[in-house]
Design brief:
DUF3352 domain-containing protein, about 30% helix, globular, alpha+beta, 16-stranded antiparallel β-sheet, about 575 residues, transmembrane, three-stranded antiparallel β-sheet
Length: about 575
């Protein structure tokens, strides 16, 4: 059943500042990526949060793993496991990354009474010519802070773990111990680092090189530019490598670290315009919405070229990846979400999708996958797929012809028939054991008879390993690994009525790719293997949902949610 509107709970309709200790401000709603039923129009320039208001984040390489946690009743703490990796031999930049990890990985608590999330962002002090950007923020918008408290309160033990004020100090002590650098032992975390350490950090990669080193900059927020610069200078001096030198500069409440020789040129580039003032970047981030506690942005082709240059490899970037991508990690009171957008992907054409068939699965479905508009997608993707098949063969023959001969089919035509307008796999609730599990297939908007023949050909080639119960009905084909389930799939189910399903997937009206897993129904199979320290937290997780949809030619969005009970 198509959901015409995004059914997920509004981040701030449930929690209110009045319900949180010490709160004195009114939080505004947290903006998310426009759902398919909403307008996809984006402002031309992104505005960061200001005092008393919140800005919008809404949601690939991928986002670095981040752990975020709620503090005690008076506040909430966020933690991130690692800072962006920079150069393998630059201790100075690594020191900056370490300090970023301490700021964002160790539990700086912010009181919910300070809900603004205002102030300069790392993008304000990174030059506008950056081709890649990573941001970490433990002082996000007010809506994000409240949503984090609400979500993490559902996870047993989260408050206890992340409310510890000495996590950063423990991290520092562990790094010093493992480094075996006696110089680092001269620094006292409480006296030398904690007093000036801010709540935001960013990393920007820029075009070109200086002195043989890639142009890049780490931006660390600080409350005391002078003290931060002095401390970081002493930290970077701990390196015994004469080639390992770092420039340290300051700008607008941030200390900037670059490889030697890039400090002044970075400031000069910044004087020409910041990344935040770059119209392309700001437009992409506005479309992304509220940037939450972590966000990333890439000029895909330029960053891929940089990565290949650094690794010494040469491989053409596929046309389908040329463009830009942006990602975020954010909270809702009901889930934590990784979300992202792609823009300027000129080789990608809009696909008309719908998650209706996913919602029509039986209510006892524990896991499902749907590809909508697969026949359209294959038209554009087949040339690249064929190249992939030929590369697997290593020049040993025409793989397409071999498959056509073996299966008695025509590619890509028969594959399009099998995918149809909607291709859905589902697994019902069942007693898993030694017997063959029940898995179902539903294909709609296709030549069902021909699709059935293609499946039969695949069965024949399997040599009896695959035997399906099949039912063709008009433009629909149903199949299952065990008798009876195919017939059940032919009857409209009520999965879309489930609150768990709706929360995990949101608006599915334009879904092209969807995945759903009901953790509550299958936890009995994996919880016994979870250790006691994590058992209750894992048990508190309810479902996983992935929703990918097309927003126009060259544009698309995705949302990956982990739902709590």
């Amino acid at each position: 059943m198509t959901q015409p509107n995004d059914p997920r709970p509004e981040p701030t309709s449930d929690p209110t500042p009045e319900q949180l200790p010490g709160s004195s401000e009114t939080a505004q709603p947290t903006q998310s990526i426009p759902q398919p039923s909403q307008s996809a129009g984006a402002p031309t320039q992104y505005s960061y949060p200001t005092e008393g208001t919140t800005s919008g984040l809404g949601g690939a390489a991928g986002i670095p793993p981040s752990t975020l946690g709620a503090g005690a009743a008076e506040g909430v703490s966020f933690s991130d496991d690692a800072a962006p990796r920079t150069s393998r031999r630059r201790t100075g930049l690594i020191a900056g990354g370490l300090v970023a990890a301490l700021a964002l990985g160790g539990g700086i608590a912010f009181g919910v009474s300070k809900l603004s999330g205002g102030g300069a962002q790392p993008a304000d002090v990174i030059p506008g010519d950056a081709l890649a950007y990573v941001r970490l923020d433990i002082d996000p918008s007010a809506g994000q802070k409240i949503a984090a408290v609400r979500f993490l309160s559902k996870i047993p033990g989260a408050r206890d773990v992340f409310s510890s004020d000495d996590m950063r100090q423990k991290l520092w002590e562990q790094v010093v111990k493992e480094s075996k650098n006696a110089c680092l032992k001269k620094f006292d975390f409480g006296k030398d680092i904690q007093p000036w350490l801010g709540q935001r950090a960013g990393l920007g990669f820029r075009p070109g090189k200086t002195g043989g080193e890639q142009n890049m900059v780490i931006a660390l927020q600080t409350s005391d530019e002078s003290t931060a610069s002095d401390t970081l200078a002493r930290l970077t001096a701990c390196s015994t490598d004469s080639k390992d030198k770092t420039d340290i500069r300051t700008r607008d409440g941030y200390v900037l670290l670059t490889p030697k020789g890039q400090g002044d040129t970075t400031l000069a580039a910044l004087d020409k315009g910041s990344l935040a003032s770059n119209a392309t970047f700001s437009g992409d981030m506005s479309a992304l919405g509220d940037q939450g506690v972590a966000s990333m942005w890439f000029d895909n082709a330029k960053f891929a070229a940089l990565a290949q240059q650094e690794s010494g490899t040469k491989q053409q970037v596929p046309d389908t990846l040329r463009g830009r991508s942006a990602f975020t990690l954010r909270f809702d009171p009901s889930y934590i979400e990784m979300a992202g957008i792609g823009r300027g992907l000129d080789a990608v054409k809009q696909v008309s999708g719908s998650g209706a068939e996913l919602g029509r699965l039986p209510a006892d479905t524990i896991g499902a996958f749907q590809l909508s508009g697969g026949d359209q997608l294959l038209d554009g993707a087949w040339p690249e797929l064929k190249k992939g098949l030929d590369s697997v063969a290593g020049g040993g023959g025409d793989v397409q012809s071999m498959l056509e001969s073996e299966l008695g089919i025509t590619l890509p035509d028969d594959l399009k028939v099998l995918l149809g307008k909607s291709f859905t796999l589902s697994v019902p609730d069942q007693a898993f054991g030694s017997q063959l599990p029940t898995v179902g297939l539903k294909v709609t908007g296709t030549n069902a008879k021909r699709a059935e023949e293609v499946l039969t050909s695949i069965e024949d080639v399997s040599g009896g390993a695959l035997s399906l119960d099949k039912k063709a009905d008009g433009d629909r084909l149903y199949a299952s690994t065990t008798p009876g389930y195919a017939g059940k799939l032919a009857t409209d189910g009520k999965l879309a009525d489930s609150e768990t399903f709706k929360t995990a997937l949101g608006d599915t009206s334009k879904m092209t790719v969807g995945f759903y897993l009901d953790l509550d129904r299958i936890e009995k199979y994996y919880l016994p293997d979870v250790g006691p320290e994590a058992h209750d937290a894992v048990q508190a997780l309810r479902a996983v949902g992935l929703n990918v949809w097309s927003t126009g030619d060259g544009e698309g969005s995705f949302s990956l949610r982990l739902v709590g009970n």
